[in-house]
Amino acid sequence: EAQVTQNPRYLITVTGKKLTVTCSQNMNHEYMSWYRQDPGLGLRQIYYSMNVEVTDKGDVPEGYKVSRKEKRNFPLILESPSPNQTSLYFCASSPAGGMNTEAFFGQGTRLTVV
Amino acid sequence: SQKIEQNSEALNIQEGKTATLTCNYTNYSPAYLQWYRQDPGRGPVFLLLIRENEKEKRKERLKVTFDTTLKQSLFHVTASQPADSATYLCALRNAGNMLTFGGGTRLMVKP
User: Fold this and answer.
1) Contact check, Cβ <8 Å, B98/A43
2) CA–CA dist B24, B67 (Å, integer)
């Protein structure tokens, strides 16, 4: 089954404790991205990657890191999480092909930083 | 700057009626507008894409129209059902392939 898989689904952590949210897709998509979703603010893009070893900042990259060492994986790293990073996070992937390609989303990761 | 705007107020309609949601955008050209459905706590799911040279697109009970003069897309759910209740998001890619979403409109269909 074609899918984008995020782990974990739920995470409660403490301020300052480094964490990684994993994202993997099995559709051989070139394009992957991370979003956060907050009430009243909608989906905002954190980082995106056009292909292996190519990453770019989205609208809200501060406090996050990403890497794209393999085509299928795109982990999101919070080196020193803070309470304002409490949010619902989504990973998405798309095939290459320009502006008319749809995005496939993971199930989401609900992160709480206390 | 590029903007995508949707009515943030929830839309409440009676079952069987047609729901119409609006998406307005600025400074996207060419415009390939996508619509997604999102259920609470779940990832958005792609529904339809309409290109700027297309006036209308249909998929089952869904219809999307595009007015490039007004820079607006309308999303219609005909013969609505309670199962159609969800948040609907519109989205556009910029020249750098970054996909940006509007804030979404919540649709509530009452039986």
Assistant:
1) no
2) 10
